Amino acid sequence: MSGIPPVLDPVSCRLRQETLRNYLSEKGLDGAIFFNRHYVYCLSGYWHEQPLTPTAILIETDGDSLIFTHQENPNAPAADEVVHYSPNHLFTLKPNLSGCIAEVLNPRISGLSKIGTDEQTPAAMLSGVESIDITEDYQYLRRRKYSDEVAALEFTIQCAERAYAAALQLIEPNIEEVELMAAMQEEATFAAGELLSGWGQDFQCGVPGGFAMRSKKAKAGELYILDVGVGVRGYRSDLCRTFAVDGSPTSAQQNAHAKIVEVMKAGEAYLKPNKSCREMYDFVHGSLDGWEGCAFIHHAGHGIGLDAHEVPRINPAWDDTFSTGDVIAFEPGLYREDLYGGIRLENNYLITDSGFRQLSHFPLDLTVTET
To answer: Which pTM value belongs to this model?
Structure first.
């Protein structure tokens, strides 16, 4: 891979804007403001590299798209106007950076009465306008990924797979969790060719998940669940693999692993348009929970894109259905005390008109030695 992230297509960005505008018109909203830099990129093609400072986008229902940034001459191919603000004095950051944007944003919304916002928009900074949270609705609006977004997600998956390849060179008894996590993050960053926009999430050994701890080392006999989300310019993969620390899984671990692979392959039959996500969860839960005394303790997957978890959700708490254009993380698992951590496997898929296309290809094996 080149180490150069693919760029979004300005025409597709404009189409995503129009989808949002149609929604805003139906809801009687005059526009939408997002401070989430991932959403800014999705809608305009402008990637705000500096995570210390905010950016925002205003999509007017019957007007223009405006980017708010401190960057000089930004590359914003699908924005009609760029509005600048000053975040610092002699390079010392001001204490209220959202307020800095608000100073230049409020005059531009003075003629609007009601707008949609996302969870990262500091509505208290907006004056003279009623704010309506549309965070969940916006997930549904953008669930269908355009081809440029699929390419962006495939790139992040490749970065994650590079991180797994690096992990396999290091996993052995007594390796520190932080050492392994740092090596994986380094490899993913080199693969991306720039600072990652997201990184996480499970790097503890011998347990189902958790953040890496410097004081904790891997032990022979344990299983290492690595659940890695790599973000590049806002788009984020979610890929999980499980490895035997000493390269010699027990028969119990091998049997549980084989069962998960069996259920994963059978479960892929649900990955097609109009299939019920709840039915898929029920199949996975019914196949795994209680199998030889094991437990299945979490969802069976979720959509991915600009947030760590998106619609649709393979979870009985929701009643979603798959749709063409969804990008899915499917993650069955088994947990039991003698598995010493448990096993979770996760692949990423694109839902197509006829079924699915698998986007991730790193081997599922417990003892992979070559990639």
So the answer is: 0.96
